[in-house]
Amino acid sequence: MKHLETFLEWGGTKREITCLILSGAALLASMIGVPGIPFDPAWAAIILCGIPIILEAIIGLVTAFDIKADVLVSLALIASVLIGEDFAAGEVAFIMQLGALLEDLTVAKARAGIEKLVRLTPRTARKITDEGEILVPAEQVRVGDLLRVKPGESIPVDGVILSGVTSIDQSVMTGESLPVDKTAGDEVSSGTVNRFGSFEMKALRVGEDSSIQRMIRLVQSADAGKAKIVGMADRWATWIVLIALTSAALTWLVTGELIRAVTILVVFCPCALVLATPTAIMAAIGNATHHGFLVREGDALERLATVTHVAFDKTGTLTCGVLQVTEQASFLPQWSPEKLYALAAGVELRSEHPLGKAVVTCYQRQFSSPAPAPEQFRMIPGQGVTALVEGRQVAAGNETLLSGLGISLPPQARQTGENWRGQGCTVIYLAVDGLLAGALALSDTLRPDAADTIAQVQAAGVTPVLLTGDHEEAAKAMGGRLSVAEIHANCLPEDKLRWIQQQEDQGKPVCMIGDGINDAPALKRAQVGIPMGGIGSDIAVDAADIALVSDDICQLPHLLRLSRKMMGTIRLNLTFSMTLNFISILLAMTGKINPVVGALVHNAGSVLVILNSALLLRWRGGGKS
Q1: Is 70 a catalytic residue?
Q2: Distance between CA atoms of residues 371 and 467, nearest Å
């Protein structure tokens, strides 16, 4: 069905182009005069381009009393024919259809970058069964199925690698230009491309739950027609139709010249006014897509242009969302920090706790070697772990674990731990053979571009705010590193919601940036909600207006500037189109222009408005993009 719709849309475009070519040739023949033709060739343009406009106007009036530009154009066409201005009628029809085609092409170009996601949906999957490997349609894959992906193939569903080492091109989902190395235990997303090695995976999210389908649903919901300012332009168009009819009637009564009245109908068509706003919005949506954003609501960019504050969640938004070992300390001269790090990775190797897993992962990544294997491993819930590592009795955990082992914290160790915790770190103490030997600090590291993003947000005239569930000291330490003055710590979901409500009650619209389920209420309540689409939860994405697909927050300042540029373009388009209409009607009333010249002037204005909107597609602004 989707293929049929695509074919019909393309077929419709080809028909429009064909009609325009034939109509243009007919108008040229009418203008230069071709002997031997018993009728005015301009009638070809009237029939091919004008009749569809008249039919659309009649259908709109009959079915919904929808008074729009096509009503006035139809009246201008009919009136021109009645007074014998066949060329003017054909020219009006031709240029109107040309303007409509330009709008379609502008919108199509604006959305081309988004709609390619739909075409990237994998068609087939290699399913591993007891009988061997079989090729099945991707939609038949179920959660838990075992799949094989070969080099060059798209990954059919979201899942986890069971065996094999490979490199994945994730540009369609994250915008990253370089492939990402993956091995057993790593998750992969549907629609991404396997570049090198073959691997086996287990399906985790299939069908409508897969990453590529979630992005497609976001694409399909991007609708410029929802924008409030588009409705306002439509209402203006209705009034302009009525004013034009009144002006034409009065001019005819006062001057007695029907041609002036017809010219008024031709020049007063509100095409530029109606075309200006949706083309600007869709061009801006196309620009936003190029920078990693998917706009779910048509009026989201309009609302974003009004925000005074941007509220950031911390974990996963300004930080990477992954624990890293950031500090190492030794309290005994016989133990170097590096050696203690190895012992810590060894004792944590069998741990299922996230902190333990983070220690092992960071050690193996930093030293490119496996952690030493532990013996007599024992996990003490809520305290830590102990094991025999390289012949040493090693314990790793919190102060409660040390106390249970009869080990006290000296002032130096206690002060080190307090300093780290004040920076938002989690502390793991290490004891070797019954003596406190050192400590590790783990924290969620800042994104490399976080500080620069905050600075650019401030430069754009918007106030950044930190809303976090962290304790006061950690929040202040993070705010200091980011140069964020307004910080709210210990925030529960309802606290974030309450703060946003208070700001908006004071006339200060807020844009909320978050990633988790706990941010969903705030994302929904804010003037504009932007979740981190790549790592953010489905609930957070569903609650938002714009999704940041690549999780690259450095593009946020560009989006803020783009929204304001879009509104400036819309205002310029509306002002220009209204001014042009006003000047043209005065010239028509005084007989300075005829229907032919009026059609050229008016429709040239429509084309200029569309081209002005199209400039937003490549707009980059003055800041970093």
Answers
A1: no
A2: 37
